[in-house]
Design goal:
A two-stranded antiparallel sheet has the order 1-2. It is about 70% helix and about 5% strand.
Length: about 375
């Protein structure tokens, strides 16, 4: 027996709309089962994950801090994926953005100027874009697989950050802790409101999401992304270049990931250390698909995934579960998002060996 996916002739608009909601509902159901198997109350666990982090003002600020890099990275990845370019290395571009954006405050710690922070943000975005340009170059020149290249570069970036913070960039007055000197006041991304820690990285994320939504909906570049993503052959007939689109998608997504990296280092941490991300670059892939690769939908999905990070921390304290439960939750969500979308656009067909089975399958099919 062989299982095949057959594209449906027509797609229900209703089911296409409710697919993310259905995926979220299935995640909650199976998450509750998981907590029950762990010997925890499902209601208490889900309350700790999704309600408790929303009850205090300070936790709402933390929600914005967690959501900002997720949204910023995911909107860039959505352009990549809609153009049929698969950037899986946003975590590495995030890390390189943090490193390149931190060059000035680390090497010139006493320099204070109104120009310092804008230069850091530009350098962070540029570093992320150049790092994303590596898989773009290898794909366009040598036809390499961008999935493998971008993914492997993540570990290069992480090890490079580890080497810097434990070696030549380590703070000599930091009691041998592996971190750089704290950024001076001019190099710290300011807070949006006096009531908490949420910084302007969240504003960057909102602006990027709205700008890319406008581009995809009203600009020729958005039409080019859509056409080449659906059919490279049709795009060539329209005069669009697949190679240029590879560069555009990777450089844009890398720049936004790099901007997210320096925003996190400058706004949330205040220095560089061996680990600056709990996996934002990988979680942003879930955010992008949960938001249906729509920049405005990504805002909502980014807040939901940020809530799982906060909820995971709350659940560790209130019901005593491992931090790995958060990753399981996020993995369940990605699985159900992809599964629901697949079943909406495709039907499952079982192909049996032998003429009788094949004829019977061709006549009846399977939903």
């Amino acid at each position: 027996m062989r299982i095949e996916l057959e594209k449906r002739a027509g797609v229900s608009k209703l089911f296409a709309f409710v697919s993310p909601l259905l995926a979220l509902a299935l995640t909650l159901v199976f998450g509750a089962i998981m907590f029950a198997l762990l010997g925890k109350s499902p209601l208490n666990a889900l309350y700790a994950f999704f309600v408790e982090p929303l009850l205090e003002v300070w936790s709402l600020h933390e929600l914005a801090i967690k959501a900002a890099p997720l949204i910023l990275i995911a909107v860039g990845l959505s352009i990549c994926y809609r153009s049929n370019n698969w950037n899986i290395g946003a975590e590495g571009q995030f890390t390189i953005g943090a490193i390149t954006g931190s060059i000035l405050p680390v090497l010139y710690p006493d320099w204070q100027s109104p120009m310092l922070l804008p230069l850091m943000l530009v350098m962070g975005a540029l570093g992320g874009a150049l790092y994303a340009g590596i898989p773009a170059l290898l794909k366009t020149r040598f036809n390499t697989n961008e999935i493998l290249v971008s993914l492997m570069l993540v570990y290069v970036a992480q090890l490079f950050l580890d080497w810097l913070t434990r070696g030549i960039w380590r703070d000599p007055g930091g009691y041998n802790f592996p971190q750089t000197k704290p950024f001076n006041e001019s190099a710290v991304l300011p807070e949006m409101l006096a009531s908490g820690r949420a910084h302007w990285g969240f504003v960057f994320a909102m602006v990027a999401a709205i700008a890319l939504w406008f581009m995809m909906r009203y600009m020729l570049k958005g039409f080019e992304v859509t056409v080449l993503g659906q059919s490279a052959r049709a795009g060539r007939f329209a005069g669009f270049s697949s190679s240029r689109m590879v560069w555009f998608a990777f450089l844009l997504s890398g720049a936004l990931a790099g901007l997210a990296g320096i925003s996190e280092a400058s706004g949330s941490i205040g220095h560089l250390q061996p680990s600056i991300s709990p996996g934002y670059g990988f979680t942003a892939i879930i955010v992008a698909f949960l938001g249906r690769l729509n920049p405005l939908g990504i805002i909502a999905s980014g807040l939901v995934l940020a809530l799982t990070y906060l909820g995971g921390e709350a659940a560790q304290l209130s019901i005593g579960v491992s931090d790995k439960v958060t990753r399981v939750f996020q993995g369940l969500m990605l699985f159900f998002v992809l599964s629901c979308d697949t079943l909406i656009f495709y039907r499952i067909r079982f192909i049996f060996s032998g003429k009788a089975g094949t004829q019977n399958t061709n006549q009846q099919g399977a939903a």
